[in-house]
Amino acid sequence: MRSSAEAVAYAKALHALVQWVGICDGNMQEGSFRCDANVSVRPMGQKEFGTRREIKNLNSFRFMQQAIDFEVQWQINEITEGRAIRQATVLFDPDTGETRSMRSKEDAHDYRYFPDPDLLPLEIKDDWIAAVRAEMPELPQAMKQRFETEFGLSPYDAATLTASRQMASYFEATLEAAGRENAKPAANWVMGELSARLNKAGLEIDAAPLSARQLAGIIRRIVDSTISNKIARDVFEALWAGDGQDADAVIEAKGWKQITDTSAIEALVDDVLAANQKSVEEYRAGKEKAFNALVGQAMKATRGKANPQQVTDLLKKKLGG
Questions:
Q1: What distances in angstroms separate CA 161 from CA 19, 63, 164, 186, 306, one per listed residue?
Q2: Averaged over 172-187, what is the pLDDT?
Q3: pLDDT digits (tens, 9 = 90+) for 261-311
Q4: What is the pLDDT of residue 107?
Q5: Taking Cα atoms as reference points, which of 168, 243, 233 lies closest to residue 176?
Q6: In Å, what is the CA distance from 123 to each residue of 44, 120, 285?
Q7: pLDDT of residue 108
Q8: How far is CA 9 from CA 4, 32, 39, in A?
Q9: Which of 2, 161, 6 is nearest to 14 (CA)?
Q10: CB distance 302 to 268 below 8 Å
């Protein structure tokens, strides 16, 4: 590895992997997962590696990057000023942003190496390896690729959804209930509204009070135009708060079903145009903001229950736009 960014990317990938397969909770602050970094520098064109110094017990990726960057520059300065680098173990001080030496290490005896002839060879049989491999879950990189090819998701969406096994499982459960054809809206809701709400509440996704089945119910009602996106967010909040068993029950109880009847929306648009002649004149004079004001008035009149696209299309038709 040739940079702190590369080292951190590797550590993050390993951190995600051990959590994904369930062998570590990945808690760096509590010591479940920590990193050491061996750092050395060498002049341009020199083939031999420089003397390394080992940074111990880094407990965050941010500190890891800061420590490596400082150590690289420190070693460069030392060599530039004619001083030799001595092999050593160092610690990173986050308060000062500097590394400091713990102890020097020069030879094998400094590491307490010793021969141990009693250790026997360990033979790992192929059938045991095959059995373990068969029990392993689908790994994140393979799942990311599958999300792209099977569901048509972008690389960014697929990477975000496979950032944790819990999020990937929630997404797949949502998609199973909502239908594979709704992969993009399902991805948007999991990465958007759901993730924002989890962050606000300080919850992990497996503790979400809104189940994947409930979220799928919201998505289905958006797709079939029963509710608008605006109403969908209200349904989401109601289900999050435990006010109802599913999207259909909330929509029915709250009277939030979207108005899609063209004749009813047309009558509404006529009323809005008659009551807002100033905005009509401003729009016809070239002020686009006036059109948005008319759409807003129409949506306000129905408390957000009119189909926004139908309102927009009818207004444009009647205004000659």
A1: 15, 26, 7, 11, 32
A2: 96
A3: 778 788 888 888 888 888 888 888 878 888 888 888 888 887 777 778 888
A4: 57
A5: 168
A6: 44, 9, 84
A7: 53
A8: 9, 19, 16
A9: 6
A10: yes
Please provide the size of the chain in residues: 321
84-132 pLDDT tens trace: 999 999 999 999 999 998 866 555 555 566 666 777 888 999 999 999 9
Q: Which of 49, 128, 120, 51 is nearest to 84 (CA)?
A: 51
d(CA 8, CA 86): 25
Q: What angle do CA 189, 139, 173 make, to 5 degrees?
A: 35
Cβ neighbours for 100, distance < 8 A, ≥ 6 positions apart: 90, 91, 93
pLDDT at 85: 93
Structure tokens at 189: 């809701």
- Residue indicated by tokens 């997404």: 171
- Residues 6 or more apart whose CB falls under 8 angstroms from that of 53 comprise 38, 39, 40, 71, 75, 85, 87, 88, 89, 90, 99, 101
State the amino acid at position 65 in one-letter form: Q
Tokens, residue 52? 């390394």
Residue 55 pairs with which residues in a beta bridge?
Answer: 37, 90
Query: What is the rounded CA–CA span in Å between residue 91 and residue 313?
Result: 65
Residue 252 three-state SS: helix
In the chain, helix, strand, coil percent, each to 5?
A: 60, 10, 35
Evaluate if pTM is beyond 0.70: yes
Q: How large is the angle between the packed helices 212-223 and 247-254, nearest 10 degrees?
A: 60
Please report where in the chains the tokens 């799928």 appear, as a residue: 216
pLDDT tens-place string over residues 203-227:
999 999 999 999 999 999 999 989 9
Q: Strand 98-104 to strand 88-93: parallel, antiparallel, or no bridges (unpaired)? A: antiparallel
